[in-house]
Structures are given as structure tokens and as C-alpha cells.
Amino acid sequence: MSGRADAVAPRGLLTAGVLGRADAEGLVKRILGFSTADACRVSVSSRSRGNTRFAVNQVSTAGDTEDLQVAVRAVVGKKVGVATTNRLDDEALRRVVQTAERIAKLSPDDPELLPELGPQEYLPVDAWDDATAAADPAARAALVVAVTERARREGLVATGYLEVEAQAVAIGTSAGLFAYHRATDAAMTTTVRTADGAGSGWAGGAARRLAGLDAATMGERAIEKARRSVNPVAVEPGRYTVVLEPTAVGNLVQLLAFATQARSADEGRSFFSKPGGGNKIGMQVVDPRVTLTGDPQHPDAPGAPFTGDGLATRKVTWIGEGVVRDLAYDRYWASRKNVAPVANPGSLQMQGGSSSLDEMIASTERGILVTRFWYIRPVDPRTILYTGLTRDGTFLIEKGKVTRAVKNLRFNESPVFLLNNLEAMGRPVRVSASESGSTGLPVVAPAIKARDFNFTSLSDAV
Amino acid sequence: MTTSRRDFLRTSAAAAAAGLAADLASTLAVGAVAPSPLRAAARAATPGDPLIRALVQQAVDAATAAGAGYADARISQNRVRTLSTRERRVQGIADSETMGCGVRVLVDGTWGFAATRELTGDAVARCARQAVAQAKANRRTQVAPVRLAPAAPTKDGSWRSPARIDPFDVAIEDQVALLLEANAAALAVRGVPFVTSAMFFLREEKTYANSDGTTTHQTIYRSQPSMTCTAVDMAAGDFQSRQSTDVQPMGRGYEHVLDAKLVANAPRWAEEAVQKLKAKPVEPGRYDLVLHPTHLWLTIHESIAHPTELDRALGFEANYAGTSFVSPPDKVLGQLRYGPATMNVRADRDQEGSLGAVGWDDEGVKPEPYDIIKDGVVVDYQTTREQAPYLEAWYRSRGREVRSHGNSYAQSWADVQFQRMPNVSLLPGPKDLVWDDLIAATDRGIAIVGDGSFSIDQQRYNAQFGGQLFYEIRGGKVVGMLKDVAYQMRTPEFWGAMDMLGGARSYLLGGAFSDGKGQPSQSNAVSHGCPPTRHKAIPVINTGRKA
What's the Cα-to-Cα distance from A216 to each of A85, A138, A435, rounded to whole Å? Predict the structure, then answer.
């Protein structure tokens, strides 16, 4: 896709809306050449996103968008300025460099300034798929039809979303660094409702290859859940044993990973702060069967080989056998604490166990089976406590069997408490863990069973 | 210095003559040749000038030539400045600009949309044809064709936010100095080691044309200064933050920052963070709640404004934002009681300085204010041109025309427009009551100031809200501060329990830049005006737990 041959055919250069390595490097170096600052970092992010929405069993809207952002960070003395643009003519590029330099000159000194990184060693990360980058509206519509036609035949109403993204990020510095990474990702979700609105079922998935999305199976799962979720019974809010499907686990466990900054912990304003000072590295905080990693090279949920400042990512273990192993240290905080920087690789994996979902249900005397959570918002950062609700497939388990649908429930709960109350885990799978259904943080999670999950009120929402 | 607008204008005539043919490939080529008239054309492409007007028209014409029955095109240039600080240090100052063209087409009743950052005649025409091809690809799924309510065309419409001081004309040194001075004032309060502060400014130049003959140009400003003060008790392993929710985001210029008086207010916000550390944990139970406008706007946003979006009520947003309990329309319009007869909710896009204010929406409709809830009963929904026809029977029964309310919006040139809420506001009551009057009238309750944690279900029944500050009320007086407070509600009961509301003097505008909806999720900026209110016997929980 990259290379000189394409440059003569103008549209070929950006067919997938994404710059190849050689073109990205040429552009980065050209912009660095405009710099008159003491140090400079240039980031070029090119992205193509195709999306198709469907509602009431037909495509409602869709979009094909290409964009390219240039960000320039200029350092003058100990002062820093940043400017970005999506204009690529020489005048605009010169201007964005000048703007960054002008802002830097007007800024006070940054006492936390570090020199720009020179050349770095990065892990190889294979996250690109040509076919996914080339998927067109007709290819997307074919997946949509696999869901909507069956729903319509069965008198149900399917709504959903398919997003396919290709992106390339390149970073260059005046200290000689050049870093380039490109990735594709796809996510599809669907909510199927009964015609009278009395039942609603959801299914979704994410994959770095569009071919990894099985739309027909998603449709079947959502249809089955919609059917089974009608006439829900109200249960009293309180502490319940829960069996959480992998998506629901991903919804909650990612909240723990969002809170892993060493600096906040050391400053006494994080769950990971140790009372009296310092942080919880080395302390047991959840069940010893729990291991949470960020692996940039994970085959199903890869992250990025570097962060925005060019720092290399490695596999990190946020929680290993229940113990806090790593927290994220940016370069400044690492230098203050005399440790090596720890970069967040931008992907999350929770290790699982050997229980099947059926086994978890069969071993449950009374509990609630959750498909997914929604509108999850922070309540108390001291305990990583969040509130949110179950949605689109919430069922009562009695005497080892799923007996009927229950009304949705609001929780006030923390992944910390959840993972302390762990009973069983299944095989981990890639999930669509973002509420909006967009590609986002790639998450791999197992289904789990846990006790004493805190539901605080009932919802009448279907 | 603003973006070299004068330079743009100087070159625009030459650029137009050059035929708008700058090519991305030539721009990208390594070791590019000397500047040519062609690349000058790309540089000249700034909104508001004749070149941009010509480009949006060219996109519309290309779409109709390719088979679109209706088409519209938007070129936006969004300029954003963000400044962020912590304690005595600047964390980041960034200026960003993004510019491009989005083309939406309707082909035999199926939508298509494509967007490009390339602003040349060829590029926008290609983009228009891409949108038409996409619509044709999606037409195979069509069950019912889209039809649009009529809208009177506007020729050469022009509108500008009521900004007195362009934030991009204010010296960055002055903006930084103000934030660092406010931080220092907060840090002077004992027990407050951490302070962050920030400013955000947007200026959007938006040029629009559609195949009905509408052409408009709008200049939209948004500004928000903000602070967070954090008090820490390291020994107890406790920390509490106070956000500057007294200052809400507005559709104004830099005068909004000056009016916010950050330096004068910072010590109070810091003191309040310290007080929260020592506040009494709330006893769970039912309380009469007295809600300040800086808090209540968010409850209105979630529990009134969202459920009265017509696309939600009809199921179009079921997969993410959700549906609505205010449904089906023919069973609720004129029938569903939302609250007491004193409850009136109005939608508008013209309150001065509000975030929802515009001259025309993103499909060229001039918005008019309208009632959503009248005397406690639902009487209308938020609509676009596609949606208004769904309510045809209701409008005809009331002797009204079938017209869009002008509630179409896209967050940028790269996103397709769809139904987004305008300002949705709770009107003040007839009595001249203010905040203190509501507290004085309350025997046992909790007063809540500022928006905090928020969450609501996908049909907008069950919600939970926190806040910034919670005060215990006993015998008509504030007797102390509480913490770990959240109230849970079922929307109809909550509004049904409203028994007092403030008068016009106590009405304030709150709002957010980040009202999320749609897939991919788009952020809408919206204000909600309201007086303080009182709600009887609302369930309150204690959210504090030990880790």
C-alpha cells in the first residue's frame, strides 16, 4: 500500500486513508525540517473509519471518513508548546510549527521537562489486516443484512452498529527517533428488541480483522436473548451471586486498569495509594487467581508498540496472582522515583480459568446472569467504585438453572470488590467492552462467577 | 494572533482562479517542489470566504448530479485552544485546527455520508459521489424510505455567537498567568496539596449549503474555565475533590473567563474540599432534596432532555443511547404526566450565551422555541426534518404544520448530523422564591450544589446522581456538611415529587460540551436552564466503602 509506485497515482497513496511507513517518515522529516526550536517532536496520525448504523431492521446512516492530523511539540529552552492541524500544504505545515514555537516562547518553564527520546527499540506488533483496511460500504452492509434479515423474518427489531477502522501513527523527534505503527480494528454490536418493546437482547464482538466478526452468530444470540427477556420479574435489590458474561467482566475490569497511574498513587489520591504514603506495589489486593496484563503483542487484542512520546511498551502485569505488580510510570515520575518508566501498552487481558458458563450457572443456588453493563460512571475513586446498570439480557438463576428474565438492576460496585469475591472463571475471549460500541481499548476477559455483588435499585427499563 | 485570516483572504482570489485543484499526493511527496498556485489554493480554503461557499455548492451539485434526491454539505474549520495546569506548573498549552467537508445525500430514501479533509473542487465532488455510492450500497436494506419535512430555504444566512472577546486574541501569557494565580490562591489553603485548572476555547467557522437552496455561514464560540481542588488526609488514606461547577461552560468568548473570577473563588473551592474530608457520612434514607441549578441542570439533561428525543422514542438509538419511556408518541403526547402543573419545560436554540444557540441547525432549519412539557404534560419531542413527519397526526390534530424543530447537529465536518438536543430548560415558577427560601421551607432534607457522579438507564427511568457539596438541612437551616451522598430516582416519581421551584431571579444556565449520543458517539454542546427545586422524600444512599 505504501511506496513510490502509489505516489504517481494520487488516490493510491491514501487508498485506505492511512499513510505507509515511507510516506509517514517523509512527512515527519519534512515537518521537523521546518523547526527552529531547541527540540521538536512531530506526530502524524492518519485514519480511515467506515461505519454503518442500522435501526429498525435497515441501515439508518453510515459514514466514510478520512483524516490526517499533524501534531507538533516544540521545546524552546525549558518551555513547551503544542499545535495541531489537518492541513498538509507547506504553508500550513510551516504555520503549525511556528504556532507551537510561539506558544512555547510564551509559556513558563516546565520543571518536569525531559529531553526528547532518540532512536528506540520496539517490540514487533502485528495489528494490521489489508482486507479490513479495504472494506467498503457494501462489505459492511453484507454483515448488517446477516442480522437484520433474520430479525425481520422473526418479527423482531434489530438495531446496531458496525465500525471498521484503519490507523497509522508516526512519531519523529529532533533527537533522531522515528517510530511507526499501523493497526486495523473492527467492532460490531446489535440490540434486538421484540416488536412490543417488552424484550431486549444484545450481542457484540471486536476483532482486528473484519473477517473475525461473526455477524450471523451475533444476531442469533441477540435474538435468543430478546425472546427470553420478556416479562421480567422484579427481584429485591441487594447482594447477589452473579455470573457475568465476558463483556460484562470487560466492562468492569477495564476500570481497574484505568486507575493504574503510579503518580496518583504516590500522591495519596488513588485506590493504589498505600495508607500512610507510597503505593500498593507488592500488596495483595484481589483473589490470587486474578492476573491482569497489558500485552502489546497479544494476538487477539494487540496494543501499540509505543506511547505518544515514543516510549517503548512492554508486557506489563498490573495484577499478578492477586498482587499489584506494575503501575504506570511516565518518564518524569520514573526519573523522580528512580525506576524504569512503565508505559501503558493500550490493551488489557484478564486471565481466566477452566469453568464453562454452564458449569458456573449449574453451581449457583440463586443468582443473576448478566449480559452487559451500561452507563458506568465513577462514584468514588478511593475504592474505584462505579455505578451503572445491567442491560439487554439479565436473568435469574435458581437451583442451577436459568429460570426467567429479571428486571434490570443498578449496581454500586468496584472491580476490586468483585475480584475479591471471585468464585470461578471461564476461558477468556476478546469482547466489545466500550459502551459506545466503537473500537477502543482492546479487552480480553473471561466469564466469571462472583458472590455478594451489590445491586442497589431496580430499573423498569427494557 | 488569530489564524492568518488576512493572508487567507489575500490569496483566495488567486486560488479561485487556479481552479481548486491542489492534490494531496503532490503535497505529500517528499522533497516537494516550490509552492505552486495549486497548493496556495488549499491554504486559501478558509470558511466564510467565497471560495468555501463555492466548494459547498460544488459538493451539493456533484451529489445531485450523481443521483441524490437531496444533498447537503458542510465545511467547518474548528479551532481549539486548551491550557491545563497543575499546582505551579503548566501541563500543556495546545492550539489545534481541523478543517474539512462532510457531504450527506439522500438517494431514493436512503442516507449516505462521506467526509474529506481535502478542500478542493475535485476532492469535495469525489466525496459527494462516494456518499451517493454508499447510499446505493445501503439501499438494499431499505424497509421504509426516509422522507423530509419541508423547510423554508435561507439564502446567505449569517449568524455569530455573542462573544465580546475572541479567546484567540487574548495573549497566552495572560491566560497562563490567570490559571497559575488561581492555583496559588487555592494552594494557600491548608490541607490542599493538589490543584488543577484549565481553559478550553473553541471557534468554529461553519459554512453550509443544501439542495433546497439554503446557504448559511455561522461563527460559533464556546468557552470553559475550570478548576479542581483536592484535599488529602494521607494518614487516613482519604481524599476529596471540589470541582468548580459554579462556573459552567458557555457559548461565549473570553469574557466568560473574566466573569468566572477564578482567583477570587479558588480559596473557597479549596476550603470546601477540606470540609468534605471532615463531613459526616450520610445516613441512608428518604430526604427532601433541595437542588441547586448548578446540580439540577444535569438531572434535567438525563431525565427530561434525553427521553424526549424522538429518535430514541422510535427505537433508532436502541443499541447505545437507548430508547425512551416517553413512548410510543401517540400514547404519550398530550397524555403523559411528567410532573406537577407547575412544571414547564421549553426547548430553544436562542438563549443568549447558551451552548445550544445557533442561527440554523445542521440541515439548514431555523429553530424556533417550543414546549416539550406544558403544565406537567408531555406535548412534543425534539425533531429533525426526517423525524417531524412521524408526528404528522399529532401536529395536524393541533392545527400545526409538520416542521422540524431544528435539532440536527454534527460535532464536526467528519461526522454525519442527526437529532441532538437543543437547550432544554425547566422554566421558573410564578413565585419569587430563591435558594435560601427553599432551604428555609424544608424541615429535614439535603441541599445539593454542583453536578457530580451521574448514571441513568437506557429508557431513562432509573437514575443516580451525586454532587459536589451536600448540606444537611434541619428545621429550615443548614446544620453541616455531608459526604458520600447519592440519590436514586425513578424519573416520573422524582418529577412528580417536585413541590417547590424558584422564581425567575433564581434561574441559571448549566451545561456540558460532552453530551454523548450516536454511533460513533458524537459530543453535543448543550445548556439547560433551571431554578432551584425541591423534591419530597427521595431515596438517598451512602456510597462510601472501605477498600
Answer: 41, 17, 21
Q: Which of A453, A371, A409 is nearest to A200 (CA)?
A: A371
pLDDT in tens, A304-343: 999 999 999 999 999 999 999 999 999 999 999 999 999 9
Q: What is the pLDDT of residue B47?
A: 56
Q: CA B353, CA B350: separation in Å to the nearest integer?
A: 8
* Architecture of the domain made up of A4-218: 2-Layer Sandwich (3.30)
Number of domains, chain B: 2
- Which of B262, B278, B294 is at the close of a domain? B278
Residues 6 or more apart whose CB falls under 8 angstroms from that of B317 comprise A55, A159, B309, B311, B323, B517, B518
In a domain, residue B547? The reply is no
Q: How confident is the model at residue A440 (pLDDT cuts 50, 70, 90)?
A: confident
pTM over 0.90: yes
**Is B405 a member of any domain?**
yes
Distance of CA A166 to the CA centre of its chain: 15
* Structure confidence by residue, pLDDT tens digits, B317-369: 999 999 999 999 999 999 999 999 999 999 999 999 999 999 999 999 999 99
C-alpha B328/C-alpha B381 separation (Å) is 11
Both B316 and B366 in one domain: the answer is yes
Do residue B268 and residue B286 come from a single domain? Answer: no
Domain limits for position B445: 281-542
The reply to whether B173 and B205 lie within a common domain is: yes
Query: What confidence score (pLDDT) does residue B41 get?
Result: 39
Residues of chain A with CATH 3.30.2290.10: 4-218
State the smallest CA–CA distance between residue A229 and chain B in angstroms.
15
Question: Residue B523 domain-assigned?
Answer: yes
Residue A278: list chain B partners with CB under 8 A: none
CA distance A122 to chain B (A): 25
Whether B35 and B164 share a structural domain: yes
Residue A252 CA to residue A242 CA, distance in Å, equals 13
Strand-pair partners of B489: B463
Note whether B83 and B93 are within 8 A (CB): yes
Domain identity same for B70 and B132: yes
CATH at B112: 3.30.2290.10
Residues B318 and B248 in one domain: no
**A279-292 pLDDT, tens per residue?**
999 999 999 999 99
Closest-CA residue of B relative to A102 is B172
pLDDT digits (tens, 9 = 90+) for B129-157: 999 999 999 999 999 999 999 999 999 99
Domain final residue, candidates B245, B278, B311: B278
Which member of B90, B235, B238 has the closest CB to residue A110?
B90
- Asked if A273's CB is within 8 angstroms of B113's CB, the reply is no
Q: Give the strand pairing for A385-398 and A401-405.
A: antiparallel
Question: Do B319 and B229 sit in the same domain of this protein?
Answer: no
Gap between the Cα atoms of B3 and B20, Å rounded: 21
Residue B546: pLDDT band with limits 50, 70, 90: confident
Residue B369 buriedness (CB in 10 A; 0-12 / 13-18 / 19+): middle
Pick among B111, B122, B462, B517 to test the A interface (most A CBs inside 10 A)? B462
CB distance B424 to B297 below 8 Å:
no
Cβ-in-10-Å burial (0-12, 13-18, 19+) of A111 comes to exposed
Kindly state whether residues B215 and B230 are assigned to the same domain.
yes
| DSSP code at position A406 | B
pLDDT digits (tens, 9 = 90+) for B39-53: 333 444 455 689 999
What is the ipTM score, two decimals? 0.93
Distance of residue B429 Cα from the nearest chain A Cα, in angstroms: 30
pLDDT tens-digit series, residues A130-162: 999 999 999 999 999 999 999 999 999 999 999
A170 beta partners: A44, A180
